[in-house]
Amino acid sequence: MGAYILRRLLLIIPTLLGIMIINFALVQFVPGGPVEQVLAQMQGDGDVFSGFSGGSNDTGEQTFGSDSDYVGARGLPKEFIEDLERQFGLDKPPLERFLNMMWNYMRLDFGESYFRSISVTDLVLEKMPVSITLGLWSTVIAYIVSIPLGIRKAVKDGSAFDTWTSGAIIVAYAIPGFLFAILLLVLFAGGSYWQIFPLRGLTSDNWETLSWPAKIGDYFWHITLPVLASTISAFATLTLLTKNSFLDEIKKHYVMTARAKGLTERRVLYGHVFRNAMLIVIAGFPAVFIGVFFSGSLIIETIFSLDGLGRLGFEAAVARDYPVVFGTLFIFGLIGLVVGIISDLMYVLVDPRIDFEKREG
Length: 361
What we know:
- It is a multi-pass membrane protein.
- InterPro entries: MetI-like, MetI-like_sf.
- By secondary structure, the protein is an all-alpha fold.
- The protein is 70% helix and 0% strand.
């Protein structure tokens, strides 16, 4: 098993390098950049997008400066543009910039944000609590609820309980997370009905002055609605996955043999079926965790006014803050690959009969 883990760890290097190469190459063809962003703000346009179509004077002639390829550089000295390029490191060829960036990342130096005067590492750590809250609690709740419910549905397959819970699960899966979040706000955050939960934020303004028990209560009070909104789709998927996995195992011969020996149904389910049926559920853990942790966080964070990694990534992409874009891509890509290895280790923990080294051979 040690040799397998070592190979998987070594495989992270080319995989992560491929991810960075593809995304770095794509960025070279995306209109705009940090220099364009600065020029657009200096022109009072607000952002870089407003200048993509170009401009013209009263005679209909294009008014782009002949000394610069940047939209919005009209009337600005060429030396000023070149100075901006040097500040952002864009005066070097793309290959040299990429190699320098990867060398810095190997030393865990992710640079500093172009527009926030703070290191990328500090920026990620600052936003991490929100995403950890959404990802961790949503995943935990999804597993705690979905696994027992899925087992129950498998045991009661075809019954009235299985029918109405399947209907509820399908409806829950069909509801977009952002729409469910808005519904929760309207119902429970003072929208039109009850004001039970706070409208925004992760903690109250007076959180620092609260006692420890009060801080814990305030924390859970604030995260209830965003966590529910983040959990709904993962909950539906995981429940059906658990049910189908248990149904496949229940029909196998070893289950009938265990029942013929006089074992109780609970012993059969949790002593024999559970280990085999949970393999596919564990296999889906990285996708569930990473999906909740990153994919759905932007909209949820925006609706509940939470300043997390989702909003950070979106704002960095819009502002063309390349150190933040590539730094977070590298960090999150590395996390995703490591979680995949952890998933394989959980396979072995649940069923020691699995040997990945023999399978590779």
